Amino acid sequence: MRAEALEKEARLFQTLKAALAKGKEVSRSCLA
Amino acid sequence: MWAGPLDFFVQLHVTERCNLRCRHCYQSAKTLEMSFEEVTAAIDNVKDAIRGWAMDHEMVVSPSLHITGGEPVVRKDLFDVVSYGRECGFSVSLMSNGTMIDSEAARRVADCGVADVQISIDGLEETHDAVRGPGSFRRALVGVESLVTGGVETNLNVTVSRLNAGEVAGLARLGCDLGASAVAFSRLVPTGTGAGLESALLSREEVAALYEEIRELGDGGGIAVTSRDPLAVVAGMSDDVPEVDVPIGGCAAGMFGVTIASDGTIMPCRRMDMPVGNILEHSFRELWVESPVLSALRTRDAYHGGCETCAYWAVCRGCRAIALAHARAGGADDCLGPDPQCPYWRPMGGAD
Fold this sequence. Notes:
Largest sheet of chain B: 10 strands, mixed
Helix content of chain B: 25-40%
Strand order of the largest sheet of chain B: 7-6-5-4-3-2-1-8-9-10
Number of strands of chain A: 0
Number of strands of chain B: 10
Oligomer: heterodimer
Low-confidence stretches of chain A: none
Largest sheet of chain A: none
Number of helices of chain B: 11
Strand content of chain A: under 5%
Mean pLDDT of chain A: 86
Radius of gyration of chain A: 13 Å
Largest interface: A-B, 27 and 50 residues
Order of helices and strands of chain A: H
Order of helices and strands of chain B: EHEHEHEHHEHEHEHEEEHHH
């Protein structure tokens, strides 16, 4: 894993965790 | 504090061979088919990414593998693939047309630990057979009955369009009579073989009426009548939506799910023919984070034509596959424009 990719991944998951912490539980699968 | 885990699904196409020739099929051309060893390598590749996310970022994922085709039952090593997926920690589901499932196949499905099976039903008998071929309705029902009798959780999935939108209540009753757990509705995506079906797409008003009817049916008849279409989810949502700039729900493309085609091609969604690499040639983990297509799908500012200014962007984004098909019908190769069927756009600036 390249360092730049690892950093991008870290930023994405950090942002995602912060957003998910706002508490709105919604469907994350559009499969039926 | 969000505790997780994060749902993440892989729609794995193990073949493009199929015993039916449906009018609306999203597949068009035949491609290579991975060997069993290649399929297990593909599953390993995704498993390694998930393990890396947990180790490096404490991002714990609840992974599921949705095995389909073509018709997955034509593949003789299907149940070995299911078993391997389960050994790797995935919850495994099957998506099938049901017509090749008899009591013996149902027993094997139950024995190998499949979580649930989704059978495609595209209307009551006359409509279904017009879409999927004469006799296919009754053969699919034999499949559903065999699975239900065998103790397998079985759901019906309806690709909904003007061809069958008037049969929603009848299909709910059918599912109930068959002992299915749910009847779910997904909008038609006019791509692949079904590219000529643009005129069968529901209007915005018809979409709103459809999801109102589905909400009213709910689980009142002893069966869950539902849709995971992002628009259906928004239809039942309060205005209390976080206006964040990262997807937290809705269309899974680019964020919560991925498709692996039968030749190993990775796509944001099977109905979005936008290859981002091949699972047999690349690290899935690197592709997932670095692909320009996947990155754009998770970036609000990359969208245009409506979704980017909508209060529901983070929980919806419409159906990107329908947006792509609509754009391609107009000559543009663009998956980030508006979902042409959306009746729910609401300006940002409300509750947060």
